[in-house]
Automatic annotation (TrEMBL):
Residues 83-394 form the Tryptophan synthase beta chain-like PALP domain. This is Threonine synthase. Its EC number is 4.2.3.1. The modification N6-(pyridoxal phosphate)lysine is found at residue 120. It comes from Desulfovibrio ferrophilus. Its cofactor is pyridoxal 5'-phosphate. Keywords: Amino-acid biosynthesis, Lyase, Pyridoxal phosphate, Threonine biosynthesis. Belongs to the threonine synthase family. Pathway: Amino-acid biosynthesis; L-threonine biosynthesis; L-threonine from L-aspartate: step 5/5. One of its GO terms (molecular function) is threonine deaminase activity. The keyword Amino-acid biosynthesis applies. It comes from the Bacteria.
Amino acid sequence: MEYFCLGCGAVYGIDELHYTCPKCGDVFLLRDNGFDDLKQTSGQTWREIFDARMCSKDSALRGIFRFYELMAPVVDPEDIVYLGEGQTPIIEASPMLQERMGGQRLAFKNDGQNPSASFKDRGMACAFSFLKSLIRSQDLDEVLAVCASTGDTSAAAALYAAYVGGRIKSAVILPQGKVTPQQLAQPLGSGAEVLEVPGVFDDCMKVVEYLADNYQVALLNSKNAWRILGQESYAFEVAQWYDWDLSGKCIFVPIGNAGNITAIMSGFLKLHELGAIESLPRVFGVQSHHADPVYRYYDQPAGSRKFEAVTVTPSVAQAAMIGNPVSFPRVKYFAEKYQAIAGDDAFNVVQVTEQDVVEAMLTANNHGHISCTQGGECLAGLAKAREAGLIKSEELAILDATAHMLKFIGFQEMYFENTFPPEYGITPKPELANRPSLVIEPAEKDRLSAEDYTANAAQAVVEKLGLKAR
């Protein structure tokens, strides 16, 4: 394998960690020089190999590395780190939610069921496996793994670093006051050194980039191309879930730092090149209007597009609140490949409002799903795509719920209590608020006998719920 620069085409070996090209400063992809050899095996045989591995109890093949040959075939089995990541379920939307969406077929892929409760574990499993391999093969001294984060990356990095232990230590740099309490608790609980800086994610990213350029650290953000490889497993799992038939299917992904949408397109392209799938699913990237540089780029006429970073404003899709996504060059690279094979409508970017995002999250969860705000962003993106006539009802929309809803539960509370600061631009609808109601006062409990308290409390519940006697 080798690092391949998207800017100048320079190539570097994998005997050390690279993040950006020393010649031009652009980002890398990892390229498998033996990939053409994989084509000697038929697509049907690859499907059978991957399906058989789903039954394996070998920890090196149970998670994302059951697709070993497509991701990091230079990592020895003894170095593969497995914490239960991958194989997250795809749950078809409830009939009532599909009806509410105008009869649209849709499903959520619940990546919040990964070990640290987000999709980031896919990339960390691959990045730490390679890091572990590098440490062993080169007998490296202590390695500091560092990342910038809005929450999910730090949780995943700290968890995997704590598991591997030994010569790996971890530090995470977070934007002060911009991470939910639940997400902050995760790296602290895993023993990472947690450092805060004023600003937003983009400011944190500049700090870790400076560290990676000038000091001996292992950067674990999506600039790390090994992260991208691990996240390709999302695409492989979607294909496998639908028995390798992706015709009539659309994938909705929040863009954020653009690593995940990059990985997903790359993964589907690999499967297509091997003949494991016959058609590419359509891909929709989604961005909030509070952090939408990729949408703005693709909203310009083809041939005269110019990418410009944006200044973000507060967003409930906190993990996607990034104004200068590191992986944008990768998105552009794979989008062009994707559209060359499957047509211009195979890749789209839609923009949604903050009001759309938070209410879509509430709608999804109110219909039995486990959607974070980023999952809400995808549902809002689906509604926007329908409104624009970009998707047909008979197509199946698969929405990426990137993390567990409990990580972002504070935004639900802010909506129900109408406490959003003005900069969010969200006006809660009273009819959507759901708050607990007290059925009997504590003072009344204290003055009543136990028997009377039970009867009075039960009667209050009866009146509240309108129950009928037997």
